[in-house]
Design brief:
alpha/beta; eight-stranded mixed beta sheet
């Protein structure tokens, strides 16, 4: 686990009780920070509490559960409360000694099934991995997240960590879930490291509230250079996987697919419009909480 800018920003938001989205290139460790967080919550911090993970398919679910158990097993015996009573599968993780459990779900094939995800569960932390690729994402989130309202309010009273975490690579705005996700992460507070200068948690919350339209969120986006990876690292991965075009843009350059194949604009014009954007050179946070 590296203390890179992505992990630092993500955990800083979480421990200040602000939901966040973390977008990074593939193979840069975007799920590592949340998986280690789950280990800490289940085996150290929480008591009689649950965490919920939603991801796009069973392969990713198993990969995340396998990683969490691998990290857990790295703990020395005197810090690892795991016993034979704990579940041993690739869809959940438990800590019976502390009364904690990680529940998981994957993308569903119908809106009716998506509406059942997470119902009956009340968790203090929810993690949504690769949301733009989860079918009927909006329906699943509307079914899943309200179940945590009471538990998260309880966590706030007890000064415990809680919140909703989103991690992803860029998706396609031409897809229903991708369009919803893109709207969510672009109509909220965009991460700048000047946020570290917030006076306190209340000041940060004010900024997030004023900037968020679809969902109260901080959107964190880092490219490979900002995470400490060289251009050669990226070139090697692109050549190894044969990634080009829109897929490479989504997976490795944090560029959302604009659905140009269905757009009345030709590819060159769409690329020119996208390339005309740039980050602000100066950011000011007003006393009223506006950016």
């Amino acid at each position: 686990l590296k203390a890179n800018r992505g992990n630092i920003a993500a955990w800083w938001c979480y421990f200040n009780h602000q939901d966040y989205n973390l977008t990074q290139p593939r193979q840069s460790g975007k799920s590592t920070s949340s998986n280690w967080l789950v280990v800490w919550l289940l085996f150290f911090r929480y008591v009689d509490s649950d965490v919920f993970l939603l991801t796009k398919d069973n392969t990713l679910r198993q990969n995340n559960v396998r990683a969490i158990k691998t990290y857990r097993d790295l703990l020395p015996d005197y810090l690892n409360p795991t016993t034979k009573k704990d579940v041993n599968n690739l869809i959940s993780v438990s800590c019976v000694a502390l009364g904690n459990k990680l529940y998981t779900a994957v993308s569903q094939n119908s809106k009716a099934d998506a509406d059942k995800i997470g119902r009956g569960f009340s968790c203090k932390t929810y993690i949504i991995d690769e949301g733009p690729y989860v079918d009927y994402l909006e329906t699943s989130l509307n079914a899943m997240l309200p179940g945590g309202d009471a538990k998260q309010a309880e966590a706030a009273e007890k000064l415990e960590p809680y919140g909703n975490i989103y991690t992803t690579t860029s998706g396609s705005k031409a897809d229903e879930s991708g369009a919803y996700y893109y709207d969510m992460v672009t109509n909220c507070l965009q991460w700048k490291e000047s946020l570290f200068d917030c006076k306190n948690e209340a000041h940060l919350k004010q900024l997030v509230d004023k900037s968020s339209v679809v969902k109260r969120l901080v959107n964190i986006v880092f490219n490979h250079r900002q995470l400490g990876f060289s251009d050669q690292w990226l070139i090697d991965i692109l050549k190894k996987n044969g990634s080009t075009g829109a897929k490479a843009n989504k997976d490795y350059f944090n560029i959302w697919d604009d659905g140009a194949t269905e757009s009345p604009l030709d590819k060159e014009l769409a690329a020119a419009i996208r390339g005309a954007g740039k980050d602000p050179e100066y950011v000011e946070y007003t006393k009223e909480g506006y950016v």
